[in-house]
Amino acid sequence: MQLRPEVEAVLRALACPDEVAAEVLRTCANPACVNLEGDSEAGLRLAACGRCGAALYCCRDCQTAHWRAGHRAECGGGASAVGAGTVAAGAAGNGYAAVMMLY
């Protein structure tokens, strides 16, 4: 039986979270992102927030929109700040917790 690619990716992340979790969980932190370029958002080149480094963005427009929508208040300027599309520092080593943060 063949599994869907996204299911296989989650299973790989659970098996070896340190190697695969970043690949599976990297998405634009802007909840209003509508960038549908390419096959999936996972293939986009993402840039980290220059202040906290935790939030990742697909483009400058998404970064600006998310900053104005509330990331400014959430952004602590350190690794403890967590963007909407990133893994919390405490869950980074725990594949199950990291995947569950998506839901």
From TrEMBL:
InterPro entries: Phytol/farnesol_kinase (IPR039606), Znf_MYND (IPR002893). One of its GO terms (molecular function) is zinc ion binding. One of its GO terms (cellular component) is membrane. The keyword Disulfide bond does not apply. Keywords: Chloroplast, Kinase, Membrane, Metal-binding, Plastid, Transferase, Transit peptide, Transmembrane, Transmembrane helix, Zinc, Zinc-finger. Residues 33-75 form the MYND-type domain. It is an enzyme of class 2 (transferase). Pfam families: zf-MYND. Its main location: plastid. It comes from the Eukaryota. SUPFAM superfamilies: HIT/MYND zinc finger-like (SSF144232). Its EC number is 2.7.1.182. It is found in: Plastid, Chloroplast membrane. It is a multi-pass membrane protein. Pathway: Cofactor biosynthesis; tocopherol biosynthesis. It catalyses: phytol + CTP = phytyl phosphate + CDP + H(+). Belongs to the polyprenol kinase family. This is phytol kinase. It comes from Pleodorina starrii.
